[in-house]
Amino acid sequence: MSTPQFSFATTAEEVATAFASEIKGKNVLVTGTSLNGIGFETARVIAKYANLVIITGYNEERLKLSEDALKKDVPSANIRRLILDLSSLAAVRKAAAEVNTYSEAIHVLVHNAAAPLGPFKLTVDNLEKQIATAHIGPFLFTKLILSKILAAGSSSYVPRVVFVSSGAHAFGAGVNFDTIGKPNEEKYQALDAYTQGKSANILMGIELSKRSNGRINAYSLHPGVIYTNINQKEESIAVMQSFGVLGPDGKPSTERFEWKTIPQGAASTVAAAFDPRLNDVPGAYLDDSTVANDAVAPHSSDPANGKKLWEVTEEIIGEKFVL
Question: How many whole angstroms separate alpha carbon 318 and alpha carbon 15?
Answer without folding.
Answer: 39
